[in-house]
Amino acid sequence: MDADALLASLRRRFVLITALNWLPNGIGMAVLIVLMDSRGLPLGVTGLIVALYSLTTVLLELPTGGLADVISRRGVLAVSAGLGSLAFCGLAVAASAWQFGVLYVLLGMARALSSGPAEAWYVDSVKAVRPHADIRKGLAASQTAGAVSLGAGTIGGGALALAPVFPDSGAVTALSAPMLLSALLNVVLLIVVVTGMRETARPSDGGGFGALLAGVPRTIASGAALGVRDRALGRLLTTALPIGIAVSSVELLTPGRLLDVTGDSGASAGAYGVITAIGFAANAVGSAASGLLASLLGGGGARTAVAGTLVSALGLVALFTTGSLEGTAAVAAAAGGYALMFLGLGLRGPVHAELTHHRVDSGRRATVISVQSLLMQGGGSLAALTLPLLAGAWSIPGAWLVAGLILAASAALYLGAGTPPFAGRRAPDRVVEQGTA
Predict the structure, then answer these.
(1) Angle at the Cα of 261 (from 259 to 262), degrees rounded to 5?
(2) DSSP assigned state of 39
């Protein structure tokens, strides 16, 4: 197989794996809160269970990234798919708070394990074939596929729960159908990962599996230290904090704002579902158009990331302007601002990933992705603690304005981040048929 054909094959596999990774989550998460309510869990208990999921993900984010770098990206992602399938199977029949708690911990473990391995595998595989190959196209296609899968999964999961698939009797009800489908799709993901993510064995100094595990903490520390030593990389990683604040601001505050302007919980929930789907679609469009924008701006990844960040910030400012509107006009304006924010995130995402990967070596790639994910979750947690208080003291649109200003200011972090430190003399193309690890 020649180099171009192999690169195309790697890109197709990466896109498929990304789509299969996010589709089960979209389908299952669409009805999980409703499922817990139908099983008699109070809202406060549901909140604690969701927080347990988040805490599990945060605690395991860096260790699982280091594990993928040291042992196997394919192995870590396969375990993630297996845990996801087990968790969704359990959720289909869970009935008590402790059962949901345990299963949410499994989901958190699966989420942490899936953060980074596929992307790190793809970039390393491409560079093994052609060191200076364009990775942006594959990253953009992957992010587009992820957004489409989440959007389609959310809509499909909600529709499936309304279909007369199961009679409402016993532990298995109509709300179980999305859970079981998500479990099945995770099995499909597991098969695709095992058969499609061919990789070379990770470097080892000898000593067996115990020595490999001992290398995980060193890899984590090395990846975190790289972000401190390389100031440009540190700035790139820091942008995840304001992104987390921005995303959390719309996810936390949009439902309340819609309830304020509609005055009806059912109408606001329906409107939020539509707006969420619009956001996923806008994100997919932005990811697909990222390369075109980079070409229009002279091919500069940093320029495109700045533009995407400012578009997202403009979306939050547009949400702020909805404060003077009521009724249908406010809902329509909120949908426009929401879409604009996620369009900007899509435009930024692929070029941001490309800039980051150009500054990271293979041995720490998944770890650095996990550091970035952890920072984004940190930004989201900060927003969850502060923005509701700000919204109460001022207004929900006012909180959006503050988040938008923070995001706009973060665009400056991309200045000077466009030159990769590993850019050396161009090497000749070489075709590498990777063996299994």
Answers:
(1) 65
(2) T
Domain ranges of the chain: 1-198, 219-418
pLDDT digits (tens, 9 = 90+) for 2-56: 888 899 999 999 999 999 999 999 888 778 877 888 888 886 788 788 888 888 8
**Domains 1-198 and 219-418 fall in the same CATH topology:** yes
> How far apart (Å, rounded) are the C-alpha atoms in residues 94 and 282?
35
Instruction: Rounding to the nearest 10 degrees, give the CA dihedral for residues 374, 380, 385, 391.
Output: 170
CATH architecture of 219-418: Up-down Bundle (1.20)
pTM: 0.82
- Kindly report the backbone phi and psi dihedral angles of residue 52, in degrees, each rounded to the nearest multiple of 5, phi listed first: -65, -40
Q: For 233-260, what is each residue's pLDDT tens digit?
A: 889 999 999 999 999 888 888 888 888 8
Q: Which pLDDT belongs to residue 299? A: 60
- Residue in the block written with tokens 């910030």: 313
Stretch 66-86: mean pLDDT, rounded? 90
Q: Which two tokens stand for residue 207?
A: 């000593």
Residue type, 70: V
CA distances from 409 to 159, 311, 343 (A): 40, 12, 18
In the chain, count H helices and then E strands: 16, 0
How many other C-beta atoms are found inside a 10 Å radius of the C-beta of residue 57?
22
Q: What three-state secondary structure class fits 131?
A: coil
Tokens of 92: 């289909």
pLDDT of amino acid 403:
95
- Domain 1-198, classified CATH 1.20.1250.20, yes or no: yes
Instruction: Confirm if 155 and 32 have CB atoms less than 8 A apart.
Output: no
